[in-house]
Amino acid sequence: MSEVRFHGRGGQGVVTTSKILASAFSRIGKYGASFPMFGFERRGAPVTAFGRFSSKPVREKTQIYEPDILVVLDPSQKDSPEIFKGLVQNSIMLINDPDDDPGITNKNLSKLGFLDANKIALETIGLAIPNTCIVGAFASLTGLLGFEPIAEGLSDYFSGKKLEVNITCAKRGFDEVKVINF
Fold this sequence. Notes:
The longest helix has 17 residues, at 160-176. The protein has one domain: 3-Layer(aba) Sandwich (Pyruvate-ferredoxin Oxidoreductase, domain 3), CATH 3.40.920.10. It has 6 helices and 7 strands, in the order βαβββαββααααβ. It is an alpha/beta fold.
């Protein structure tokens, strides 16, 4: 089972990111559970969401205290100790960061993926909402699923022209994520 903790800010699509991934996993015959944790429910406030993805039914719906994958949609949170709290050994991290070198190190990370998802989203969908770009990058970085289930999962949340541009955004995330192995 993969336990994923998502960090970001209200308005970035953090919760939707975890939901789209759960939908994508179901399309390949796996199971997913997605749930948010809110503090202040307002745009710009810190938001955390959780996802569990497995080949067996996921029954546990509690917070994830020891993630093996971190997904960070807000680059200003990359230096927060809370982000890395409980991170298990040989973990993976994906971050939306405009820097060519995000400067992230942690003894428990084995792989870091990064890309400027805000820029890609702005160029593709016209809004700096990084979630669909991050979903594509997640698939590429982790290898847990291919791009096709991601595109299909997006159809649960978008239709028409919005679906087309979000698939394009996710595809760019899939293709453009940069990886550092530790």
